[in-house]
Structures are given as structure tokens and as C-alpha cells.
UniProtKB/TrEMBL annotation:
Domain of life: Bacteria
Molecular functions per Gene Ontology: hydrolase activity, acting on glycosyl bonds
Gene source species: Streptomyces flavotricini
Gene that this sequence comes from: mug
Alphabetized PANTHER family for the sequence: G/T AND G/U MISMATCH-SPECIFIC DNA GLYCOSYLASE (PTHR12159), G_T MISMATCH-SPECIFIC THYMINE DNA GLYCOSYLASE (PTHR12159:SF9)
Protein name: G/U mismatch-specific DNA glycosylase
UniProt cross-references to InterPro entries, sorted A to Z: MUG/TDG (IPR015637), Uracil-DNA_glycosylase-like (IPR005122), Uracil-DNA_glycosylase-like_sf (IPR036895)
Domain Uracil-DNA glycosylase-like: from-to ranges: 15-170
Annotated keywords: DNA damage, DNA repair, Glycosidase, Hydrolase
Matches recorded under Pfam families: UDG
E.C. code: 3.2.2.28
Zinc among keywords: no
SMART domains according to UniProt: UDG (SM00986), UreE_C (SM00987)
């Protein structure tokens, strides 16, 4: 990608990868410019989302961002708190996060995934006004959808390694599998 192509992707909206009946709807903060330019979520090479999904057991192999639609076969999806693409998440205003939280709530009410997994506890805190939220399952629900705050897979999040992130993502996978086992009406 040239700098001009990346710059042209600013403020684009990246379509969600969603369907009804999802086990987990992963929710990023917002698309980066490379993701918006390519049309693929978590496309930046340093982003650890795709390796962590595999390491945690959500996918049988490491998917490339261009294979994002394959997530639906595993009853997984991707959306974002804020839809518009920026170079950095700190370009987003608090109001955009709050509005994103309202839009995300409506989307979850419509799609009714078993779990909403927000990848970035700070984004979760800001979007939902939960200033004390920590990584892990949350008390808040959206209808029957449970919420889990996960570490941000960005390469800039040096506090978490791919292995430690995979352990946290695997905790969610285990919870989602046990939820599936308890839901007779879920495909």
C-alpha cells in the first residue's frame, strides 16, 4: 500500500463479518487504515488477532485477514465499536465511543450472539461507561448476550504476549463452548 492509498482509506467504514447465531462476536476498537484499504479486519501485520484466535483454539489453523469470512463457519464474527477508519484509535473522541456503544448495543440486540468480546478493555470502558471494568467476563449483558473484555491484540499492546493473550481468549472459548452446550435452541 502506498501512503496515498492508506490516506484515502481514512474515515472509510469496513463492513462487519456477521450473521445470526454466532457463538462469539469479536468487537475491535475501530478499523485501521490498512484494514479499511484492504477490506479486511485486523489486517496490519503486527496485529496479533489472527494468530491469537488460532493459538486459543477458536480456529483450527491461522487464518489470514483475507479469509475473514471463514470465521462464520466457526460461528464467529467481527465488528467494531466505532465504524470509521483512522490511523490511530486515539483519533476517536469520547462521544464517538459512546455513540459506538449505542450502535453496538443495537447490533447485538439484532444478531443475538452468545458472547460479545470487546478486544480492548479501554474501548469497552469508554463505550459502555464501565470505568472499572477489567479483562474477563463482565456483569453487564445485552439481552441474553454475555460480554467479555479481552486484551487488545495490537502490536502496540506490549503488556500482553501472543501466548498470554491466547490464554485469555481460550478462557472465553471455554465459556462459549459451555454456553453452547447449555443452549438447546442454538445451532
Amino acid at each position: 500500500m502506498t501512503p496515498e492509498e492508506l490516506s484515502a482509506a481514512r474515515d472509510r467504514v469496513l463492513p462487519d463479518v456477521v450473521a445470526g447465531g454466532l457463538r462469539v462476536l469479536f468487537c475491535g476498537i475501530n478499523p485501521g487504515l490498512l484494514s479499511a484499504a484492504t477490506g479486511h479486519h485486523f489486517a496490519r501485520p503486527g496485529n496479533r488477532f489472527w494468530p491469537v484466535l488460532h493459538l486459543s483454539g477458536f480456529t483450527p489453523r491461522r487464518l489470514d485477514p483475507a479469509e475473514q469470512e471463514e470465521l462464520l463457519t466457526y460461528r464467529l464474527g467481527i465488528t467494531n465499536v466505532v465504524a470509521r477508519a483512522t490511523a490511530r484509535a486515539d483519533e476517536l473522541s469520547a462521544e464517538e465511543f459512546h455513540e459506538g456503544g449505542r450502535i453496538l448495543t443495537a447490533k447485538v440486540e439484532l444478531l443475538r450472539p452468545q458472547w460479545l468480546a470487546v478486544v480492548g478493555v479501554t474501548a469497552y470502558r469508554t463505550a459502555f461507561g464501565e470505568r472499572r471494568a477489567q479483562i474477563g467476563p463482565q456483569d453487564r449483558t445485552i439481552g441474553s448476550t454475555r460480554i467479555w473484555a479481552l486484551p487488545n491484540p495490537s502490536g502496540l499492546n506490549a503488556h500482553w504476549t501472543a501466548e498470554s493473550m491466547a490464554q485469555e481468549y481460550a478462557r472465553l472459548r471455554t465459556a462459549a463452548e459451555s454456553t453452547s452446550d447449555q443452549s438447546p435452541d442454538t445451532p
